[in-house]
Amino acid sequence: MNTDAHERARKLIALAGPETLSAADRPSDQRSSNAWLAAHLETCASCRAFAENAAQTIHGLRAIPIAAERSLVSTTQIRVRRRALELRRNRERLRLVSVSCTAVTLCALLSTVVLWRGFEWLGERAQLASSVWQVGFLVFCVMPALVAAILLLAKDRHLADHTGSYRG
Amino acid sequence: MNATAFYFESSMAQESTEIARGLRRRDADLLDRLIEQYQHRLLRYLVYLTGRRELAEDLFQETWIRVLERGHQFNDKYAFSTWLFSVAHNLAIDHLRRKQPASLDGLLNDNDEDAPFDVPATGRASAFDLTVQREQSEHIAAGMQHLPAEYREALVLRFQEGMSLEEIASVARVPLGTVKSRIYRGLSALEPWLKGAQL
User: How many other C-beta atoms are found inside a 10 Å radius of the C-beta of residue A18?
Assistant: First the structure.
């Protein structure tokens, strides 16, 4: 008997595992492997010993009692509930931000159209060239952002000066 | 037999679908139930995988937080336990990578005095067989500590969780052949420990 046969037998033993299929449900190659293994075990004492040891090892493995303590389970449940609440709040916040963004975008679109029409009407009434009231419209739209930027810059400069005077 | 198997499979599939639906909703009650249901199995897996009880308990909690956060990724075509163990596996790997960039081998702790697989005394047992069995388990537990983490993982998933080879491959994210070789080598490596128990 060559070493390949022993190796094959031991691998079959190790991989036999916990499947509970009946012999009839097993694939034919598996059935033939099992028949081969049974025949091999009848003649090979060392592989038989390996099979017995493997069975005992598996039995021993299953007998090692490792259990979770009650405190671990309850701490985990509390942490999971807290995190679930946190995630729900985040989701609600995100939903609120999305709704606000959508509303702002819609308002901006509508007001742009209305303003455009308003400037056009004013331009016609004042008999201005279209380029003039269009520039006026542009300035009107950009003005709030421009004013805010200037104010912020001024505030930054003021703060920088103020800190500088303390340092000095 | 076939009707029983069909009934069993369809009820498993239904359970998986319900779990998937609950996880998508982030249902805290469902998670409470799952934590109760899988507490011992998950902790046992993590203890074997990491070899350290304290670390296993930390990872146990992190695993359930991850399950809550990524519950929508669970595919109800598979068993929940397989997905749960793969989440725990990934967390253990992440933890190890943060500590040191290595494989699961880094979880092998030969010099660790803290024995994670301590076999507690069984309260009512008095028969000779139980004593022998306890001694055998102690020796195997000691042997497990000296095995590489990959082998420990394969052995616990196969013989304690009763997973199929394919399921183990999916949890450990390795080819089927690697799983087979880990189980074979793991069992072979434990043999001397069992013999030690018989001496």
Answer: 13
| pLDDT at B36 (0 to 100) | 95
Tell me if A46 is assigned to some domain. yes
Nearest chain A CA: its distance from B71 CA (Å): 11
A10, B184 contact by CB (below 8 A): yes
The rounded distance, in Å, linking the Cα atoms of B48 and A64 is: 11
A9 lies in a domain?
yes
CB B116 within 8 A of CB B145: yes
Identify which of A22, A62, A66 has the shortest CB distance to residue B43.
A66
* Residues in chain A within 8 Å Cβ distance of B1: 22, 25
Number of structural domains found in chain B: 1
Domain count along chain A? 1
Q: What was the ipTM of the complex prediction?
A: 0.75
Residue B127, pLDDT score: 61
Taking 50 as the pLDDT cut, the residues of chain B under it are 108-115, 119-123, 199
- Using CA atoms, how far apart are residues B40 and A70, in angstroms rounded to an integer? 11
Q: Which residues of A touch B119 (CB under 8 A)?
A: 64-65
- Average pLDDT of the segment spanning A65-80: 92
pTM of the model: 0.71
Q: Could you give the CA distance from residue A12 to residue B156 in angstroms, rounded to a whole number?
A: 18
pLDDT for residue B103: 54
